[in-house]
Amino acid sequence: MTDLPGIVVTGGSGRMGQMLINAVKASEACKLVGVLERSGHDWIGQDVGVTMGGAAIGVTVSDDPVETFAKAQAVIDFTAPAATIGFAELAAQARAVHVIGTTGLTEDDIAHLDAAARHAVIVRAGNMSLGVNLLAKLTKKVAAALDEDFDIEITEAHHHHKVDAPSGTALMLGEAAAEGRGVSLKDVSDSGRDGITGARQRGDIGFSAIRGGDIVGEHDVLFAAAGERIKLTHIATDRAIFARGALKAALWGQDKKPGSYDMFDVLGLGD
Ligand SMILES: NC(=O)C1=CN([C@@H]2O[C@H](COP(=O)(O)OP(=O)(O)OC[C@H]3O[C@@H](n4cnc5c(N)ncnc54)[C@H](O)[C@@H]3O)[C@@H](O)[C@H]2O)C=CC1
Ligand SMILES: O=C(O)C1=N[C@H](C(=O)O)C[C@H](O)C1
Questions:
Q1: Where is the active site (predicted)?
Q2: CB within 6 Å of ligand 2 — which residues?
Q3: What percent of the chain clears pLDDT 90, i.e. is strictly above it?
Q4: CA 20 to 30 Å from 108, out of 28, 49, 135, 226?
């Protein structure tokens, strides 16, 4: 039991944090050794079993990442970009696998993560579910098979608390479509349309975002041409799918060399 990899969950009180804590607790392949929250949060100093409404489990919520990561073989992190950048450096110092689900990262943020990945394993994906990663591979294949007569439009829908758009998943799907077409997403991305935008540019990949209620996450990739349309869809109804993927990544990363990995690596979804 004591040899099982120790997992730290950051942002423990969050929507994903709580899913992750439950997933780690239920797993026979690892053990929960720490939970982090931001300084000032009212869970700090309390047993996480109690803060989640149950019995004490002997893990106290902390706001000290250095001390907490020292106990970890893996850190699972679904928080916010600024927090994730700081955690990457500290997880690398602790030689812990850093599984990152946080979205809304800038190019500069990703450069920081790549620097940390020179010293430790980082697995990062805008969506950790098997279904979305498969959808990305399908998107790439369909985009490669069709020419620019087919306009590609990616639509995503999420709960009203979500702070970033387009979603990490939408961007993943956009990257997959762009790769299939042999172009760079940066050159063809069209997001946030409002006002007199002008006609759609041939070859663009468009993004639209819906925010409302408690939608867990829905993504459509539309290929629209004159006379016909193809739509690829993923609907998440339970955040457990993301937690399952993240836990799989944390265990998968244990015997890997330092570097940046994604869920295609973890799930063995090559081209
Ligand atoms: N890659 C994937 O499969 C998925 C990614 N996400 C992403 O995960 C992130 C979190 O999503 P939710 O759980 O819905 O958000 P949330 O707002 O419910 O939870 C975020 C938690 O992080 C904590 N936090 C923020 N700064 C911190 C710090 N410096 N130290 C410790 N804790 C800190 C907050 O207090 C909060 O409890 C978002 O970026 C979201 O897009 C969400 C679901 C799936
Ligand atoms: O914030 C969320 O909730 C989600 N975020 C991820 C994203 O940005 O795509 C994954 C999932 O769709 C839920």
A1: 158, 162
A2: 103, 126-127, 158, 162, 167-169, 217
A3: 98
A4: 135
Q: Which domains does the chain show, CATH number per domain? A: 6-124+239-267 (3.40.50.720), 130-236 (3.30.360.10)
Residue 1 has pLDDT above 70, yes or no: no
Six-digit token string for 227: 């006379």
CA of 14 to the centre of ligand 1 (A): 6
Gap between the Cα atoms of 176 and 142, Å rounded: 10
Annotated binding-site residue? 102? yes
pLDDT of residue 271: 78
Instruction: Give the CA dihedral 11, 14, 15, 17, nearest 10 degrees.
Output: 30
Residues classed as catalytic: 158, 162
Query: What mean pLDDT do residues 40-48 have?
Result: 98
Cα angle 2, 26, 36; round to 5: 75
Q: Are the C-beta atoms of 75 and 97 separated by less than 8 Å?
A: yes
What is the overall mean pLDDT for the chain?
97
ipTM value greater than 0.90: yes
